Amino acid sequence: MTRFLVVLDVDSTLIEDEAIELLADEAGSGALVAEITERAMRGELDFAASLAERVATLAGVDAGCCARVGARIRLTAGARELVDAVHAADGAIAVVSGGFHELLDPIAADLGLDHHRANRLEVVDGRFTGRTVGPVVDAAAKADALREWAAAHDLPLRRTVAIGDGANDLLMLRAAGLGVAFDAKPVLREAADVCLPRRDLRDALPLLGLRA
Predict the structure, then answer these.
(1) What is the pLDDT of residues 148-173, one digit of tens each?
(2) Which of 16, 60, 117, 182 is least surrounded by CB atoms within 10 angstroms?
């Protein structure tokens, strides 16, 4: 029986990087995309619109670059220890991302996550079209994922914890029993139940009554 559920954001939370920026480096649009990302995470831009604008810069890039980009992704300190401690305590741990399955799937498999969800990039003839396919994983979708996974484990929302860093995580933190702002933007720190300023996910363990 699952005792509790932890759901994390991915970019700048589970990992040190913004995946879209790493992909944009392949298209030569890294600086532009980084500026749009920063504004979106501060809550100054609509996420879906900003995602479409950023993904459009990837049009024509060889989709095979994902393996190369994935090798550059850095797990945040304490990520593996958090996952292992949650599992050892009969908890479930999941991630939901405004990034992309193409980069997230290998990370989720490596860490042994219970659930993961992200956007998907459209590929035609081996190249990105500059569009995504399927529903956009925005702030509302993140909150919905937390509720869906809690229900799947027969858990009340009061036994859920959400951890994120940007405006796109706001609704997820509000939906959870405990909302944790991790090295977060001001808009999220103001709404969170707890703020963790240090970039080490092991700092979340005491909030869960756990030790690494």
Answers:
(1) 999 999 999 999 999 999 999 999 99
(2) 60
Whether 17 is catalytic = no
Q: Given 9, 138, 144, 165, which residue is catalytic?
A: 9
In sequence order, the β-bridge partners of residue 182 are 196
Please state, as a whole number, how many other Cβ atoms lie within 10 Å of the Cβ of residue 192. 23
Which tops the pLDDT comparison, 10 or 45? 10
Counting Cβ atoms within 10 Å, is residue 2 exposed (0-12), middle (13-18) or buried (19+)? Answer: middle
Q: In what order do the strands lie in the sheet with 160-164?
A: 127-133, 115-124, 92-100, 5-8, 160-164, 178-182, 194-196
Q: Which of 11, 114, 144, 165 is catalytic?
A: 11
Residue 9 bears catalytic tag: yes
Is residue 45 very low, low, confident or very high in pLDDT (cuts 50, 70, 90)? Answer: confident
Nearest to 6 by CA among 169, 208, 187, 160: 160
Q: Strand 115-124 relative to strand 127-133: parallel, antiparallel, unpaired? A: antiparallel
The arrangement of secondary structure in 5-208, i.e. its CATH architecture, is 3-Layer(aba) Sandwich (3.40)
**Cβ atoms within 10 Å, residue 31:** 10
Per residue in 88-138, pLDDT (tens digit) is: 999 999 999 999 999 999 999 999 999 999 999 999 999 999 999 999 999
pLDDT (0 to 100) of residue 176: 98
What does the alpha-carbon distance between residue 108 and residue 14 come to, in Å, rounded to a whole number?
10
Decide: residue 75, CB within 10 A, 0-12 exposed, 13-18 middle, 19+ buried.
middle
